[in-house]
Design brief:
Chain B: The chain crosses the membrane at residues 74-96, 108-125, 131-148, 160-180, 192-216, 267-288, 295-313, 319-343, 364-384, 404-426, 447-468, 488-511, 561-581, 593-611, 618-635, 641-660, 681-701, 742-759. The complex is a heterodimer of chains A (510) and B (782). Chain A is mainly alpha-helical and 510 residues long. Chain A has helices at 7-21, 26-54, 76-104, 113-129, 133-152, 157-188, 193-201, 205-222, 231-235, 241-266, 274-292, 297-318, 321-352, 363-366, 368-381, 388-403, 406-434, 460-478, 480-496, 498-505, and strands at 57-60, 71-74. Classes of the chains: A mainly alpha (510), B mainly alpha (782).
Chain lengths: 510, 782
């Protein structure tokens, strides 16, 4: 069983190499990707079941016990998030295969896309599974490395420039990350997360909080917390739909995961955390206001992405079981819904030839199926019942009321307001794009650029992949009962920390 | 119960696909389920009147308090009469109202059935969140039904306004529910009503938030303008959603919670103030309208204010009046809307100024319309009269000043109601001098019957007043009755309420006749106090704020973004380092004197890099920094580390030299003369200084010996068979990191190759190629 923990990382990594070699055999290359992500999703289910039944599944790599070697840990939280992530990655992969076949025919292969996508998957799994701060850095490097390539792939000069914003900000955050690791190592002599959690307690309070805040800033950049978010709406919309979908769905949430993991396991805040609550409030509000100001559909969705990161920070900042469970539910919900919306946006722009809302019109009549595919995740994101966004939001509101400090009430109010602003933004999209007079599709502004295609053609594969994600999002709501239970157990684990430490360090550590 | 609600939603989901064969009969199929619901409610009548309830519960996510809990009691039963009863009528009416081949029929029928289901769930919900879920579902249905295809600007604006106003209220209500549930320790409505949480700031806040939801949904001033706007919807939709059922949801919620909270401070005063104000404003505005449907919409606003007051007052007699008016309003308003629909359908207009002579042309329709309008005006022996009498009696009973003030408001409001009822009668059916008689074909029976049924009921329930008595009394049971409980009857003797009724009717006639003068008075209300401009300004303000905030910060400039990130780093963790950290006590400046020149070299080179104008200079200076750090490793006794560092630096340098040959020798970016350099210098220096200080503070804070490092040194010779610890770490202890970093290198190489190849890659086929077919032209590229 323990060996299984390494597989979700090694499989896609090895497959990436194979995929590079298979460059000439398009179908094999595609099949390989689909098989690997399916396998990873299955592995995630197995790990989740095992972690839920008998505690964290731990693998000490190379047989070197922590803290000398690197430890991989699959607990409820990491297995759950990995499951959702792998399902979303699989759907996006199928979508992009469909898009590729539609645009270039069945026989052409892509040299870079599949290997990079697999590497990205390996990075995501590694970030979830690692129990080691430096290894987490490596995981981020892998993810970012792959994402640099994906965002600048098959591109134009403008997009490379926008991609540079992404790359340089990410490099800055990596620089801060590695600096922070050096400082952490200087203070504690370890980078193993479980080991750190014991060592940090002994440090002076000032150093502890400085360390916690550094992690907030470092992971805050990755997760696009306001005011560290500016890079995101400027760069994500410049990538083709499937790439943006997977970035928006996963990368920021991996940052949030890292925040949740470190701030619960390593640090003990004891009670709700006013500073982070403030960050969550401005993230929610500034992001949503940004969305309202947009005419570009993808930028609008990117700002909403930023805004809703605030919900997860809110849950984390409350620092109790209900709040954390809400944050976990929100991550699960948001990974799915955000990726879905970007895929739908991809379908739309292929029909309209533009991302400008004011350039679209009357789509509900022309493409009722796509209208439905948009409406469900849009209502879902706005937290309209009975979808998963409502369930997750409700959990957070309840947690806010339960904590009951002034700041918690302020953040709860902000969460409700953000939900309203989100709905306003979505209603604008609906009114501009789906209602009104139909407009003829815009001609492709630049045939060499994959961003806007406007060929008017979507294949069945693309629509099916999108529909599958929409259905998956609905299923999250249907299974809200078991999901909320497992999230609550995961949150209890996080606040306790004992089982994780014992599993990694052995009995005597407790 | 849950099965019934679900069946509605499932049928709604199926209707669009099967309506291809059903055509307009899709509406008739849709009417089946509301009919079943109504039948079920009627069979449960005796049990409910005996004080019994029907309960049902299905868990969804119990950890979060999400459980679908439904309960049928007298209040739900009354609402089901409106929701399902009127629903059946409307859906049958739709069959004949809409064009048989209209494309929108499948959507409209599905949405109406979905709405009927959601509304049924709403009125049956015995759980705050269950209620909220159905509440928002009705909002979404309303949005789509009002907007239709969104072809006209009016449709888009009205549907958005209805959506925004009711969702804002709905969300605040949700927050109120969460707070209330937190206070009460349960989300079950029946439990909360049975043992309400103690009064206090939190409970009061929760109640105000909940009321906000009720007020927006039930179109109370100042949120009311969405309701007249929603009249762009087809008339059957307006009749159902925006007169009979959905807009009563707020009133229903107040009725549901009043037994528990009518004596809490903000509850009743808020309801009374806004309710009366709404009743007056709505009634007054109805006098302005020339469009019959909008006239009725303002009438609905006015009556909703009336109902709010009746449902929130919390006394036995007033509650009886509330139950009576609830049903009476549902009956007469659906009659009137359906009548207007018929007039519009047949005559092609519903404008008062264009209609004339309808009375002569459609005598039966006129009788139906007259029953509705006179019931609305409160004329005996119609059902509306019973409710109004009971209301007057109820507020006279206690004789407190507050109640008398409310009574005055109600009498005034009723006079306005009577006035616009007469205006409606005159406008719809009257013969106007100078207006040509409207030519209109005879309406079909399918349109007339649904309008006639509620009119007949209005007459029946009024004449046989005792029919409804049991229902009203059961509803009022939670409120203590006096020694002589009130009962519904046409004749209570010569009493003050009767006198008031007479006054109301007389002044109604007067107001109607003197309408022109009354309306002219209305110009005094300043613009900013009017609700519609208020809404528009709020939305425009929201847009302005969004643009301002986003435009201000989302500058699109990478240096700005980096500066903000570094500033956050300096300010947030930095303040903690400076306030909470402490410098190590014994601080040696250097271990060996050789370190001093090396440090100076590294620092100078680092500063010089930022000033370099030539690329090559910058690269070499960076190399100097790297080699300098390698030198530190040597001095600190880490030759293996130093070796790695020197190798990396050398390789980088060589690579750079190759790349630089292809680039201009100087940095092309021209230093902007306008933006001063010092902020950048300040931010960089601060960030650098913070890292330096942190390094001291963090290393000084170490308590335990470096376990991992000792572990490496200890295990390397035996465990990894390596004398070089760095090697052992890289290829054994932490080999997994190395695998990762190698992957990063491979990725980078692929990325570079991909960028270089980008100029030579295959292009998507042009349109010409596509038609010619051969996709082979884009064979595998290398």
């Amino acid at each position: 069983m323990t060996m299984l923990v390494a597989l979700p990382i090694l499989l896609p990594l090895l497959a990436a190499g194979l995929s590079l070699v298979l460059g000439r055999f398009a179908t094999l290359q595609r099949l390989l990707g689909v098989v690997v992500f399916t396998a990873n999703a299955v592995l995630a289910v197995v790990l989740l079941a095992e972690a839920d039944k008998s505690g964290p599944v731990v693998l000490q790599l190379g047989g070197w016990d922590a803290p000398v070697g690197i430890t991989l840990v699959a607990d409820r939280l990491s297995a759950l998030l990995m499951l959702i992530s792998m399902v979303v990655m699989l759907a996006v992969l199928v979508y992009s295969i469909g898009q590729r076949i539609t645009d270039y025919g069945r026989s052409t292969s892509s040299t870079a896309f599949h290997p990079m996508y697999l590497v990205l998957g390996a990075g995501v799994s590694m970030a979830y599974l690692t129990g080691d701060l430096f290894n987490l850095f490596v995981a981020f490097e892998i993810m970012l490395g792959a994402s640099y390539v994906l965002i600048t792939r098959r591109t134009t000069a403008t997009r490379v420039r926008a991609g540079m914003t992404y790359t340089i900000v990410s490099l800055t955050s990596s620089l801060l990350f590695i600096t922070m690791i050096a400082l952490v190592y200087a203070a504690t002599g370890t980078v193993n997360l479980a080991d750190l959690s014991g060592k940090v307690e002994a440090l002076p309070v000032g150093v502890q909080s400085a360390m916690a805040l550094m992690m907030i800033v470092v992971f805050g950049i990755k997760s696009a917390m306001v005011p560290l978010h500016f890079w995101l709406p400027d760069s994500y919309p410049t990538a083709p739909a499937p790439v943006t979908a997977v970035f928006a769905g996963l990368l920021t949430k991996v940052g949030v995961y890292a925040l949740i993991r470190t701030q619960t396991l390593v640090f003990d805040h004891g009670e709700s955390w006013t500073l982070l609550l403030w960050f969550s409030v401005i993230t929610m509000i500034i992001g949503a206001l940004g969305a309202i100001a947009q005419n570009d559909l993808n930028r609008l969705l990117s700002f909403l992405l930023v805004s809703h990161i605030g919900y997860m920070l809110f849950g984390l900042a409350l620092y109790d079981v209900t709040g954390l469970a809400g944050a976990i539910l929100y991550v699960v919900h948001h990974i799915t819904v955000q990726a879905t919306l970007f895929l739908v946006s991809g379908l739309l722009t292929r029909h309209t030839g533009t991302v400008a809302l004011r350039g679209m019109g009357g789509l509900a009549k022309l493409y009722p199926a796509i209208a439905l595919l948009f409406a469900i995740p849009a209502l879902n994101l706005a937290g309209i019942p009975p979808f998963s966004g409502f369930v997750a939001k409700l959990a957070l509101l309840e947690a806010g009321a339960e904590v009951g400090t002034t700041m918690a009430y302020v953040a709860t109010g902000a969460a409700v307001l953000t939900s309203f602003l989100t709905l306003y933004a979505m209603a604008k999209v609906w009114v501009f794009a789906f209602w009104g007079k139909s407009k003829p599709p815009h001609p492709d502004p630049d045939p060499t650029d994959e961003l806007i295609i406007g060929t008017g053609s979507t294949s069945r594969t693309m629509v099916s992949a999108t529909s599958a994600l929409v259905v998956f999002g609905v299923l999250i709501a249907v299974f809200a009962g078991p999901l909320s239970e497992i999230s609550t157990r995961a949150a209890t684990d996080l606040l306790d920390g004992g089982p994780y430490r014992t599993a990694v360090l052995g009995e005597e550590a407790e | 119960m849950l099965l019934l609600v679900t069946a509605h939603l499932v049928l709604a989901a199926l209707l669009p696909t099967v309506s291809r064969w059903l055509g307009r009969w899709a509406f008739a199929v849709g009417a089946i389920l509301p009919a079943v619901s109504l039948g079920w409610a009627l069979t449960s009548l005796t049990e409910v009147l005996a004080g019994g309830t029907v309960d049902e519960s299905v868990a969804w996510a119990p950890v979060l308090g999400l459980t679908f809990t439904l309960r049928l009691d007298i209040l739900s039963l009354l609402m089901i009469f409106l929701v399902s009863g009127v629903g059946v009528l409307i859906l049958c009416y739709c069959v004949y109202y809409f064009k048989p081949d209209a494309q929108s029929n499948s959507r409209t029928s599905a949405l109406l059935v979905a709405f009927a289901g959601a509304m049924l769930g709403l009125v049956l919900a015995d759980d705050l969140f269950t209620l909220y879920i159905f509440w928002e579902l009705t909002t979404v249905c309303s949005f789509l039904l009002v907007g239709q295809d969104g072809n006209t600007k009016q449709q888009r604006r009205s549907s958005i306004q209805a959506l925004l106003v009711t969702v804002l209220g709905g969300l605040s209500m949700l927050l109120g529910f969460v707070l209330l549930g937190e206070q009460a320790g349960t989300y079950r409505i029946s439990e909360i009503v049975a043992s309400p949480p103690a009064a206090g700031a939190l409970t009061s806040t929760a109640l105000v938030l909940i009321l906000l939801g009720a007020f927006t949904k039930s179109a109370q001033v100042p949120f009311h303008t969405w309701l007249p706007g929603a009249m762009v919807a087809p008339t059957p939709v307006s009749a159902y959603l925006h007169a009979a059922s959905m807009v009563k949801a707020g009133v229903y919620l107040v009725a549901r919670l009043s037994p528990a909270f009518s004596d809490h401070t903000p509850w009743w005063p808020l309801i009374a103030t806004l309710g009366i104000w709404t009743m007056l404003i709505g009634g007054y505005r109805a006098l302005f309208e020339r469009d019959l449907k909008t006239l009725l919409a303002y009438g609905t606003v006015s009556q909703l204010g009336f109902l709010m007051v009746l449902m929130g007052a919390g006394s036995h007699t007033v509650a009886m009046a509330g139950a009576t008016m609830l049903i009476a309003h549902g009956l007469f308003k659906s009659t009137l809307f359906l009548v207007v629909g018929i007039i519009d359908h047949q005559a092609g207009t519903r404008n008062i100024d264009e209609l004339s002579g309808i009375r002569r042309r459609f005598p039966v329709l006129t009788v139906i319309g007259a029953i509705g309008a006179l019931s609305m005006a409160g004329i005996p022996p119609l059902f509306g009269f019973l409710g109004k009498e009971a209301a007057f009696e109820g507020f006279l009973e206690s004789g407190t000043t507050g109640d008398l003030v409310v009574l005055v408001g109600l009498v005034l409001g009723s006079a306005l109601t009577a006035a616009y009822s007469f205006r409606f009668l005159w406008g719809a059916f009257g013969t106007k001098p100078g207006v040509e008689d409207s030519s209109a074909p005879k309406p079909s029976l399918g349109l007339m019957v649904p309008a006639a049924v509620p009119a007949a009921l209005t007459l029946l329930l009024g004449v046989v007043a005792s029919l409804f008595n049991a229902l009203a009394t059961t509803y009022a049971e939670p409120y203590p009755a006096g020694d002589h409980p009130y009962y519904l009857a046409l004749w209570h003797g010569f009493s003050l309420p009767l006198l008031l009724s007479a006054v109301v009717v007389a002044s109604g006639v007067g107001l109607h006749l003197a309408r022109d003068r009354v309306v002219r008075l209305g110009g005094w209300l300043p613009d900013f106090l009017q609700a519609q401009p208020g809404y528009e300004r709020t939305v425009a303000g929201l847009d302005t704020v969004s643009y301002a905030v986003t435009g201000r910060f989302q500058a699109g400039s990478l240096p700005t973004y980096l500066a903000i990130i570094l500033l956050t780093f300096v300010l947030v963790p930095g303040s903690a380092v400076l306030t909470g950290g402490s410098m190590p006590e014994e601080l040696r400046l250097w271990d060996s004197a050789v370190q001093v020149p090396v440090a100076i070299l590294v620092l100078t080179a680092a500063i010089a890099v930022t000033m370099a104008k030539r690329r090559m200079t910058a690269v070499i200076l960076t190399g100097v920094v790297g080699y300098g750090i390698g030198a530190f490793f040597v001095l600190d006794g880490g030759p293996d580390l130093a070796l790695a560092q020197f190798l990396v630096e050398t390789l980088t340098l060589v690579a750079f030299v190759f790349v630089l040959r292809r680039l201009p020798s100087r940095f092309t970016q021209v230093e902007s003369t306008r933006s001063p350099r010092w902020p950048k210098v300040a931010v960089s220096v601060a960030a650098g200084a913070l890292v330096a200080v942190s390094a001291l503070v963090f290393s000084g804070a170490r308590q335990a010996p470096p376990e991992a490092s000792e572990g490496f040194v200890e295990a390397a010779p035996e465990g990894a068979h390596a004398n070089n610890v760095v090697n052992a770490i890289l290829v054994d202890f932490r080999a997994f990191d190395t695998v990762g970093e190698i992957s990063v290198l491979a990725v980078a190489a692929t990325g570079v190759a991909s960028l270089i190849l980008a100029t030579r890659r295959a292009r998507r086929p042009s349109a010409a190629e596509e038609t010619e077919g051969p996709r082979k032209s884009r064979e595998v590229r290398k």
